[in-house]
Amino acid sequence: MQKEDDDSLLGRRTYLKLGGATLAALALGTGSASAESHPYTLIVDGSDTSESTEYVFEVSETIQKISSTSTDSSSDTVSDGRVEGSVTDGVDAYEFSGNITSFSFDGPAVVKCGENIEQTVEHTIEIISTEDPSELTYEFTATDEITKIFNDTRNSAETRNDQISQNSDGTWTAQGYTGNGYGDSFKFKGELVEFSPNTGPFKLLIDGQEVDPSEFGSQTSEPTDDSTPTGPAIGGGDGYPNTVAPSEADYLVSSTRELVSAFDDASSGDVVYVEGGAEIDVGRRELTVPRGITLASDRGINGAEGGLIKTDHSPWAMLEVQDDVRITGLQVGGPRWDWVEADDTELGIDARGSNIEIDNVNAFGWGYAAIRSNDDTHIHHCHLHHNPREGHGYGVATEGSDNPIIEYNLFDHNRHSVQGNGGGYTIRYNHVKADAISHVFDQHRPGGTTMKIYNNTVEAIYDELEDEKVPAVAIRGVPDDIADIHDNWFYNPVEPRDNPSGWTNEAIIQVHTDEWRNVSFNNNHYGSSEPSSDIGCPR
């Protein structure tokens, strides 16, 4: 470590910012400041480099550490007016009184010092869900800028779900949504002035230390008749927290011509917004939703049903979706409603790319499927219904994709709510209503890869066409890994057999084998009597 005097400190690439009236008071070995009336801030900023900076400084009166976002801050020490520390890819900040009596450092960090620069200090805030399943909608306000942290693995902020805005009074507010044991992370400057809610299945960390949310002025109260509904908002619509407002639109459309033009012109990050109440009949057109955009409408905002994109023809598909797209708040309507036998067929949304999110969508009337996944599509809080065609008729067709997540959806009047065709999926926290045609959750031969089916409520007991019991889960063949079926509430009261025996009518069956192979089921509830609260979908 190199010892630096005042002149060399000011002349290096790493420098001490001493300006205006504070220069004389803070210059090494001169001046003084009252701890009560003139606290100063010193910041060692290494956020623009991955190279470590080591530092030691001493003050004549008191000092305390107020923040650190550095990756190596655990060894920093503060004692008797002396600080010894290091900073790598982050910022260390201190508040002190008196004058700096010595300062030495080695490394590329930038050092800033003075009065009233606390607003330049970056703090971290983490909101971590502590239960699975659970949902959390939160909001917090800081006196200065808030930014998202994207590299915190399970606790990374979301590109779309979490929103940040600057308020007219200069403060900043973040609104977000998380749950199921995951979390979100942000950086903020200045002070945290409000956080809500003040209780719930989560913990709040500031600069890595758990704090009580009620310290930040958050308030909770009993909901009134006109308050926003709470709970999981299964199926989306009223009470769904992550809607997109019309004010966020880059393109506002209400006709086929405007929709096609917006898709042609939009760039990644843009929002194409279908006006609430609009009905766009695309006819025989098959449209491509371009990479990186959000296609949205107002479903769930003040009771709105969402703009409708529809066809009376049989496209394949009406909306073909590329990478990194979000579709939210829309109605997506096809030409079907009642049961049909073999005929022309059609597909509503074909999620062809990766990292696609489809949420808060009301989709109906599709002979093949309302939504087809080809990769890691996240399908949640949708109402998928009236897709009843012989041989097909799916709410979601996962085809051969391995990693789609299908959760918090409401299914009704489909031939199969979810179909698999050789890949895998996660199906959780969904509610399937009583009207069904054939079994509910399906996997075709040869049996798929890894299927996780848990915490769903399936009311369907009978095939409404045949008046016979239908399975909630049918695995055809033998999974490569496992079909793990647990903690579901199946209204079908008939429990699985000791050994499978073809197309029978128990709640869980495995076909094309005479023994259970790579299928696990436990802690499921059978029958319409209500189970404990941790069985079935959230309610």
Automatic annotation (TrEMBL):
PROSITE patterns listed in its UniProt record: TAT (PS51318)
Domain Right handed beta helix residues, every copy: 348-460
Gene3D superfamilies: Single-stranded right-handed beta-helix, Pectin lyase-like
UniProt-annotated stretches for the region Disordered: 212-244
Cross-referenced Pfam families: Beta_helix (PF13229)
InterPro entries: Beta_helix, Pectin_lyas_fold, Pectin_lyase_fold/virulence, TAT_signal
Signal peptide positions on this chain: none
Biased composition (Polar residues): 216-230
Protein name: Right handed beta helix domain-containing protein
